[in-house]
């Protein structure tokens, strides 16, 4: 079975540009999470979807960040306009409530904003 | 801010030696997850503990959750170069949010 799929794996962009990160969760999983990882702050939860509905976006840094989940198999995280401090690795994870709710992570998107 | 404290921050072991990583919380852990991450890659799920006193093993890696469910340890027996990486503990402190420790970087010297 395919795991969580993320694209692109690497993104280099200039400040002010729009960045869109994509995620395909594991089939059958109904929860999806977006995380950001930096050396300074570690792994931080940005937003959580359940059954395609955003449940908690309190971790989203500011209005420049937005996330959507139009269907059960696809989600996007958009940054507009991007800034150098957004440079980080962005992970998508999915889980299926089965008592353990283990989250399975994608390989991440390494974003560099110049 | 880290709700979970991991120790040590990093460690270097000689191949074949054992190592232990600790994860401590000031709150009760309803679920404790151990992940491994290699540089430039995603987090790989290792195991999950829920019950106080629970212990799980996978190959040469053993994880325990103490009776009070506020501390977990990860023990690797006879370490190998393949064990090198960053180990993170994640705790279920709210309904669905996982809070992560800062990670422990493990280096295995041949």
Average pLDDT for all residues of chain B: 90
User: What is the rounded distance between the termini of chain A?
Assistant: 36 Å
Question: Low-confidence stretches of chain A at least 5 residues in length (pLDDT < 50)?
Answer: none
N/C terminus separation of chain B: 35 Å
Global mean pLDDT of chain A: 92
Estimated structural class of chain B = mainly beta
Net shape of chain B: globular
- Most strands sheet of chain B: 6 strands, mixed
What are the defining features of this structure?
heterodimer, A: 114 residues, mainly beta, 7-stranded mixed beta sheet, 4-stranded antiparallel beta sheet, B: 110 residues, 6-stranded mixed beta sheet, 5-stranded antiparallel beta sheet, 11 strands, 55% strand, globular
Question: Can you tell me about this structure?
Answer:
The complex is a heterodimer of chains A (114) and B (110). Chain A has 114 residues and is mainly beta. In chain A, 0% of the residues lie in helices and 54% in strands. In chain A, strands 2, 4, 5, 6, 9, 10 and 11 form a 7-stranded mixed beta sheet that branches. Chain A has a 4-stranded antiparallel beta sheet with strand order 1-3-8-7, with no helix packed on it. Chain A starts with a strand and ends with a strand. The mean pLDDT of chain A is 92. Chain B has no helices and 11 strands. The interface between A and B is medium-sized, with 22 and 22 residues.
Give the secondary structure arrangement, pairings included:
The complex is a heterodimer of chains A (114) and B (110).
Chain A: E1 5-7, E2 10-13, E3 19-24, E4 31-38, E5 42-50, E6 53-56, E7 65-71, E8 74-79, E9 88-95, E10 104-105, E11 109-113
Chain B: E1 4-7, E2 10-14, E3 19-25, E4 32-37, E5 43-49, E6 55-58, E7 61-65, E8 71-76, E9 85-92, E10 98-100, E11 104-109
Parallel strand pairs in B: 2-11
Antiparallel strand pairs in B: 1-3, 3-8, 4-5, 4-9, 6-7, 7-8, 9-10, 9-11
